[in-house]
Amino acid sequence: MAARTRSTCLVAVAAVLAACGHPPATPAAARDTAPRGGVTAVPSAPEAEPFAVGGSATPAQFAGPPADAPAIGDGAIDTWSGWLPDGRTFSPFDTSPQPIARLNPLLLKAIQDAARAAAAQGVTIVITSGWRSRGFQQRLFVDGIRQYGSQEAASQFVASADVSKHVVGEAVDIGGDGASEWMIRNGPQFGLCQIYANENWHFELATDAAGNCPPLRPNAAG
User: Fold this and answer.
1) Is 139 a member of any domain?
2) Which of 124, 137, 203, 215 shows the greatest Cβ crowding within 10 Å of its Cβ?
3) 125-146 confidence digits (pLDDT tens)
């Protein structure tokens, strides 16, 4: 009788709590801490977001550092420098923005020389991406893993910070009507080569002593 009375009281208390807007507690059997085979399961900590400054998203999805983003200093991970808003481009002659200013000087000169020659033929070359901070490049790689499902798949489309030439200012991505086609044909005379078959916008200084470009790699992982 004592057990039945206790059970009846518990049910009554639960009903009162629900009526007052307090839902009953989750039964222990439904919680991660419920005993399993005599061992108490410890709930897993939520997975930390990598490079938590502003969260993680592809460049087209975030519009710049949030107002409360911490300042970048010693020991901090700069996950923003080198980022461009979606659709934003730079002239190769505007050296004030970081993505242009921090390019290898030889690469910048080559791009500028190529842009002048292209303009004389009615083709405008703009830069859509240049130097990137190591943290930002790794952010892109992490986003690639999320999008493509694995590091192996992501590495075909975006390089890790350890191997990306953007991080050391030795690669540019270009845009403009007909710019990629013009550069593929004429870039080698300025030392500029398309590197990946699946990226006709990515160029590096890569000609040999005879002015020839290396064979195309299938992708950033190939």
Assistant:
1) yes
2) 203
3) 999 999 999 998 998 999 999 9
Q: How many domains does the chain have?
A: 2
pTM for the whole thing?
Answer: 0.66
Assess whether 179 and 117 both reside in one domain: yes
Residue 186 lies in a domain: yes
Range of the domain at 101: 78-205
The answer on 82 and 35 residing in a single domain is no
Residues 91 and 146 in one domain: yes
Query: Residue 112 and residue 120: Cα distance in Å, rounded?
Result: 13
